[in-house]
Amino acid sequence: MRAAAVDESGVLALACDLIRIPSPNPPWDERAVAEHLAQWLRDTGIDADVLGVEAPNAPHANVFARVRGTGQRAPFVFCGHLDTVPPGEGTWTRGPYEAVVHDGRLHGLGAADMKGGVAAMAVAARRLAREAGLGQPLQGDLLLAFTSGEETRSRGARALARAGLLDGAAGIVIGEPTGNRVGIAEKGGIWVDVAVTGRTAHGSLPHLGANAVAALAELLVCLEAAVASTSDGMSTGQAELRDAVVRSADALLGSPTLTATGFDGGVAANVVPDRATAVLDIRLLPGQEGAAVLSGVRAVASEVAARRGVQIEVTSPGERVPLAIPSDHPLANACAAAVERATGHVPVRMGLTGATDATELVPHLGLPFVICGPGHMAQAHQPDEWVSTRALEQAAEVYYHLARAMLG
Ligand SMILES: [Zn+2]
């Protein structure tokens, strides 16, 4: 009885269409999939535009659409991203863009993250638009924000927010895969680039140089020790970094992390290297400040630089704000009720270790968020990604009931 109200083949067919139009990022080009989705929405009578992120015809393209309400309530937003990660070097059993349904699973790149969720949102919007045509309009506008470039720091979401298109909205649901559970928190983080400049020398006369590779290796060991250890004997810089990063584990999100994810350096086998770079991925909990962490990394770096006679530059190309809402927030409760209605199960509240478009939208717009979508992150970003077709249908039901709860 639960699935009967949604056009089941509709959500699956649209999800297949979206998967079959590649939008891997890099190279970051959602134009074709955005055009298809916008036309699908227009065919159902919903106003929809394709908006280039930097310029009207840019290949980086958002879709913005609106199901008009009567204006008695503030708008509510459905948000999902149109890009996927690249298919990767791993072997896919079926082609990543084939969109094959087998044994109750839809396989393909983006099935879970998150063309399935986008399709479910679009199908729910179509149902609401149809009901409006039959004299049951929503009391507020339903805004559809299908974004470009989520996998590259949510640049499409940032453009949509800055264009003012979502201003005045009273809440947002992000359709990232949560297994149709209710996501109420996500880790944020800060990326850090480290560049060490030393002095070259002949490999046989290392005392004449300042070894950038060795200095960087020492720095990474010191950074790890600062966040991993509670022992005495830490330097002042390490203690500062530890204070900025280390927290007791959050029930939903776990602990903050600091991970070296890149390392490059060296000139030739017989040359003391004067240049080495590294990248750090640092994940933080709500309430933590990227700036304090950056300052701590710099404090450790300057100690290593002094010991080693090198210069170390520490910069950040970007930050994602950690977010959380109270577990009894009305939006969390409304989402949980919608999930229970769609699935028959009371969903748990959960947190996401990765950031979503919410990190750009929520601080800018100052609205509550919830993350809820079909599929699981464990299936994302790897070969043979899939989503259960039942979860897709249930997600379309969840979004429908959530919109009715928020918009009347
Ligand atoms: Zn995603």
Walkthrough of the structure:
With 408 residues, the chain is of the alpha+beta class. The chain has 2 domains: 270 residues, Zn peptidases (Aminopeptidase); 133 residues, Alpha-Beta Plaits. 35% of the residues lie in helices and 23% in strands. It contains 10 helices and 18 strands. The strands form 5 sheets. A 6-stranded mixed β-sheet has the order 1-2-6-3-7-17, sandwiched between helices. A 4-stranded antiparallel β-sheet has the order 11-13-9-14, covered by helices on one side. A 3-stranded antiparallel β-sheet has the order 4-5-18. A hairpin with a 2-residue loop joins strand 4 and strand 5. The longest helix is centred in the first third of the chain and has 23 residues. It is elongated and about 85 Å long. The N terminus is likely disordered. Bound molecules: zinc ion. The site of zinc ion has 5 residues, from helix 3.
Low-confidence stretches: 1-7
Number of domains: 2
**Could you state the order of secondary-structure elements as H and E?**
HHEEEEEHEHEEEEHHEEEHEEHEHEEH
Widest beta sheet: strand line-up:
1-2-6-3-7-17
Please name the fourth-level CATH homologous superfamily of the largest domain.
Zn peptidases
Q: Which small-molecule ligands are present, each listed once?
A: zinc ion
Overall form: elongated
The largest β sheet comes out as:
6 strands, mixed
Count the beta strands: 18
The CATH topology of the largest domain is Aminopeptidase
> What's the average pLDDT?
94
Helicity level: 25-40%
Cα(first) to Cα(last) distance is 22 Å
Secondary-structure arrangement, i.e. CATH architecture of the largest domain? 3-Layer(aba) Sandwich
- Approximate strand percentage: 15-25%
Count, helices: 10
Tell me the structural class: alpha+beta
Computed Rg: 24 Å
CATH class wording of the largest domain: Alpha Beta
